[in-house]
Amino acid sequence: MDLSLTTRPEGGRTVLEVGGEIDVYTAPKLRETLVSLVDAGQYDLVVDLERVEFLDSTGLGVLVGGLKRVRTHEGSLTLVCTQERLLKIFRITGLTKVFEIHPDVASAT
Question: Start and end of every STAS domain (predicted)?
Fold first, then answer.
């Protein structure tokens, strides 16, 4: 399974829709996109994980790295996720205390 990434402006923030699998093979593509957005001055990001089918520790690392990158510019990286299997990963790793996780893009923006 490949990784699909699309961006759009919404509510003064940039929404990054992610679909497919985020693993050791596809995570670099996500990292490059996050770095490009920040380099382009996009510091308030919403990462929509609703179409993500799989997320491993490499993907978590990329999301944490993205959060650190936007915070150096006084920005934010918010997640959209309602899938219990993904939410469980965030709870087990303690990342629910690090990320704001919203049920939909509207509440995240």
Answer: 3-109
